[in-house]
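Supplementary Note 3. Input sequence used for the single-chain structure prediction.
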Amino acid sequence: MCNTDHHGEAGSCSTFCDAIEALQGELNIGFWLWDVNSGRFVVDATTRRIINIGDDEEFETLSDFLAMLDSDIRGPLREILESADGRVFEYELACGTDFSRGLKIGGRPTVSESGTSYGGWLRDVTKALTEADQAASTFAVVKGIDQLKSSAWMRLNLNERRVIAVGETLVAWTGKDEQDLLRLTPKGIVGLLDSSDRRKALNAMAMVSRGKEPGPIRVQLIDHAGLPKYITLELSTLDDRGNVFLFATDIAVDLNLPGNSFNIALQSQLFSLLPELVYVYELASGRNIFASGNVRDYFGYDRADLEAIEGNFIDVVIHEQDRDQVRLHKMMLASALPGEKLPFEYRIVRKDGTVRILSGHDMPVGFDDREHVTQVMGVARDVTEERIAQGKLEKFVLEAHESQVALEQQQYQMEILNDQLARSNEALMRRAQTDGLTQIMNRTALNEELEIIFKRALITGIPFAIIMADVDHFKRINDEEGHMVGDEVLVAFAKLLKENVKKGDIVARYGGEEFLLMIPGADETIGRSVAERLRTKIEQTGWANRKVTASLGVCAFDMSFSSVSEMVDSADEALYKAKREGRNRVFAFSDLKDAA
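The predicted structure, written as discrete structure tokens, is reproduced below.
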């Protein structure tokens, strides 16, 4: 794609183009251009060769171009291009059925009269993938791992926070679709583990990102049945591109036990030795996934009998006076948090008609893509004799004689209270996180978000920028026009900031007339550009016959900062430098360091 106009001797353009094409061939790199507004996508001959598109193939849009690619490249490329969001990007893709082929794609936005375009490059890095850091031997090991159903693997990039490849065994263990696993971030990968082990795994990733070796750790992977699979987790060293291999080994093999030592059949036998009843079931359907071997001792029903009444368990087994209580318990489980234990106590009617009292707790162990509870694990024990000794059974008998009208009234009141409580909790949560005047995020909620983003940046190296914005001469507005007018200015100022940043950017009231913005993925150049755009917008906006301007300070993340509060203080220093220099301007923290 050589359309450059070169001045000089005749033939210089031809020589230059030949040299460029020779260099492209040597480096296995091609170029492309995408006009966002028109959708037109143009590639050169080298790019066509890399992705196996013939010279006679023509296309006018991004979709036409993607339709000609192999399916394993098409999805990731579309996601990369359509989510670029006006910023410079560079990604690595692992392609092919065995992920032995590697592509890198990069792009940079340009602005012309017709709007935004992207110019970029595509490079075949298969050779680099198979030679660098003895990756060839690593791939050979990885391919062999899936032959051992006791071991699994995953390849991820900590810099880009994404999964590059995943083995068949891990897909089988988790019960998730391979594409779902490929869409996970490091945090999502850790979410596959039991909640008690997630911090341990995050610490291991953080050590690897800093060039250290955490060594093997033992954790529990929540498998496709919602049950814990005990595994040993190991991470390879980080290569210069941020790639790392994750290896998992079933501890059952280490213990030299037949098959999976924690499979459902063996678990059932082990749990039957305990006096408690242990079970796992699907919340929506009531279908039993697992129950300990003593289930008949509790209910008097064989497993086959229980399977036959799964969908009608409450009406058949639960005492009629406790059925609404159990239904309410299931409703509460539907909104429970990971690791949250919900206690219960109710009566059951055994197959022989005798009444027993069960007490225990349930907790969610399975979630869908929208984090809705799908599976529940519980532990229950028979407390009938204890309750008789405590005089509780007489109370249950007494309650059984209450009138149906009283029961219905209680149910109605409970529904009202639950609705009021839900609305009250929702309102409290909003108030706790929202500034009362401007209705944007308050400082308390902001500090929590900033701590999370800062820790993530330390692990991944992905930057973010903080912008402090302050209304110029705000005290004069309050003194001359009154606090009511001052409040109106603050509300309008917050609304303007919120409407002129991208989705995912954070806008919060930091205090008084000071506001803080957090721009994910932005370095200082982008942060300064966003701040200048906001300053111009504020200056050009009509403010009810008054002039309002703002001073802004910018600070971008780098590894020299020890805390996020240090970044906020640095942005604040830049802000006050802008005020000292005459207000209505933007300064970055680096400007202060350069001046010093």
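The first helix runs from residue 12 to 27. The longest strand covers residues 355-367.
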